[in-house]
Structures are given as C-alpha cells and as structure tokens.
Amino acid sequence: MARTAHSGALVQHPDHPKAMVSIRDVSIAAGVSIATVSRAIGNPDRVSKATREKVLTVVEALGYSPNLVARSLRSQQSKLIIVLVTNIANPVLSGCIRGIEKVAQGLGYSVLLGDTQNDDVIEARYLNLLSARQADGVIQLSYRQHGKVDELILNSNPDAAVVNACACLDAAPCPSVGVDDVGAARAMTEHLLGLGHKRIAVMTGPDESPHSRDRMFGYRLQLRAAGIAFDDALVIRGEFTMKSGSEAAAKILDLKDRPTALFCFNDEMAIGAIQKLTSLGLRVPQDISVAGFDDIPFSAYANPALTTIYQPAEEMGAVAMRLLDQKLSGETEIRTVTLPTELRVRQTTAPPGTP
C-alpha cells in the first residue's frame, strides 16, 4: 500500500497481492476500534497523527483495500437512518429504539422511525428512501420486514447499510444483534422443572416468528434432557399480545390433564394469561405457575410480580446502531452479536400444590 503525495488517500500497490482483509482485521492488529480505523482512512483530521500513522502502517502491512464505494457514500451521507418497526407500542421494541436513539445522537445521526403497521406499502415507502439515498441505512426490528428488505434493497445491493436488531431473522443476510432464545427458553424450562412441575404448557408466538420457534426448540430440548416426553396438547398458540394471552389461557381449562405451569413466550401474553386465569378462579402460582419472556418494565410491578427472562432491549438497539455505523464506515463483515439474558424469578412461579 502507498499513500499519494497530496491527498493522503490509500491506493493498492500494483505488486501487492490482494488479500481478503477486512477493516476489522486492521482494527485488531492496530489495537484500535473499527470506527478509529475508518476515521484514520477517511477523516484523518478526526484522529491524532500517531494513531493515524499506526493505522496506516497496519493497512500497508496487511494489504487492506478500503471499500471505496462505501467511503464515497459516506462523504455524501444524509446523516438520517430509518428504524422499521411493526408495532411501536411493543415494550421490547421501544427499548431497542431508545438504545438506537442514544447512540445515533452521539454519532451525529437523526432517526426516522417507521411504524409500518404490517403494511407492505408503508414498508416499501420507507425502504425507497434508502434506495434513493435520502437515508443512509436501515435498522429492522421485525422478522416480517425481511422479505421487503431483500426485495427492495439487498438483492440489488448486498452491501447496503442494513442491520437486523432483535435477531429476528433465521439466517441474517446482514449484521445482526439479539439473544440466545434457545438457551434462555431452556433456562426457564429448567427452572420450572426444578420446582417439580412435570406438565408444563407453553404459549407460543406466531408460527413464522424465529423467536417463537427458537424458544419452542429450547423448551423441547430441556424436556428431553429431563426425560419428559413432549406433549403437543400442551402447546397453546398466541400472538405476542395481552389479548391473545387472555384468549388462549382459557383453553387450559379445557385440557383433560391440566398443566401445573405455563411458560409464555413473551411477557404480554403472560400478563394477559394471568388476568384470564384468575378471572376463572385459578390462583397464580398456587394452582398454576406462569412465566414470561422479555422482562418488560411492567413485569416487576404486576401483582403478583412475573417470573421472566430478561433480555437487554436497550443494549440491543445500541449495538445495532454501532453495527450500522461500522457498515457505513466500510465494514464488509456480516457480524452476529449475541447478548446475555438472565432468569429473573419473582412471585408467579412456585412448586405445584403450594398452599
């Protein structure tokens, strides 16, 4: 690699072998962040002379060729990013949005929130802003948007600045951040089994949701590890809403051999289920234990307080925004970041038969 005499820009030396070196490789070798590498190459006035020289030395040694197209786009940025969400009222997604906003403001971006309400036309309208370069990038917060993002953006430009937050895709074609749904569901199932429950019902989300499928897989894995046969009669379909949780919970009373515990795949369904169960004369947790997933703010203040899985929604949003900024800085690696969850035991779970 050599530097031109006037601009300081990096060019590929004709005799240098072309290696598949990413900006991340440079950051690791130089001991600095990806953002610092990007600034040293594209905005040298934003880093110290010593840091810039260190980065450029590593760039030359590794034979890194900066993504010139990404750098060109960066110089023409609108500093506007789009966040696509299907339900702005969802507490988990609201937490993600807070995290995105905080990091975006620090990086000088404005956020355009697109509440698509599951409408293809509205989704396409927002995504067209990216293809028209009126926005720099997109963070998607719903698995439902995957098809439109592929159709309108990634199929024509695989390097487009798109990030998937909440890990809402089965096989993300872009940088992604989320939690280990399988492992978290295993932890909750293990908790209920440890209390002595043998018949544990589950309330799922929509069949097309990767979150729901992964949590079901974790539940089944833990049952198998405990030597308990899976019973499809204990699977109750929900829609990740309080209303669907309430409606689905009534089905528990129709079961011939009623379960002693119910694991809902999100907190909203759990809260709806508790309301319905108590209205039908069942006590929680004395007659049936109920657990959720997400640890939305209301969970700790419900009566009784909900046992659930905490996932760091705000941190997911913050990481997603950093991944998008790295993508806009020329990062080409498709990274998947998995954040930790935590089992939070409160008042809605207890051993079966608790007086």
Helix content: 40-55%
Mean pLDDT over the full residue set:
85
Name of the CATH class of the largest domain: Alpha Beta
The CATH homologous superfamily of the largest domain: Response regulator
Taking strands numbered 1, 2, ... along the chain, how are they ordered across the largest sheet?
4-3-5-6
- What integer value in Å does the Rg equal? 24 Å
Structural class: alpha/beta
List unreliable stretches of 5+ residues: 1-19
Helix-strand topology string:
EEHHHHEHEHEHEEHEHEHEHEEHEE
Tell me which CATH architecture of the largest domain applies here. Answer: 3-Layer(aba) Sandwich
| Strand elements, count | 14
Q: What distance lies between the first and last C-alpha atoms, to the nearest angstrom?
A: 75 Å
Count of structural domains: 3
Biggest β-sheet, characterized? 4 strands, parallel
Query: What is the beta-strand fraction?
Result: 5-15%
Count of helix runs: 12
Q: Note the overall shape.
A: elongated
CATH fold topology of the largest domain: Rossmann fold
Q: What do these coordinates show?
A:
The chain is α/β, with parallel strands linked by helices. It folds into three domains: 2-66, lambda repressor-like DNA-binding domains (434 Repressor (Amino-terminal Domain)); 77-179 and 313-340, Rossmann fold (3-Layer(aba) Sandwich); 181-311, Rossmann fold (3-Layer(aba) Sandwich). Helix content is 41%, strand content 15%. The protein is built from twelve helices and 14 strands. The protein has a four-stranded parallel β-sheet with strand order 4-3-5-6, sandwiched between helices. Helix 1 (23-30) crosses helix 2 (34-42) and helix 5 crosses helix 12 (313-328). The longest helix has 17 residues, at 91-107. The radius of gyration is 24 Å and the shape is elongated. The protein starts with a strand and ends in an 11-residue tail after the last strand.
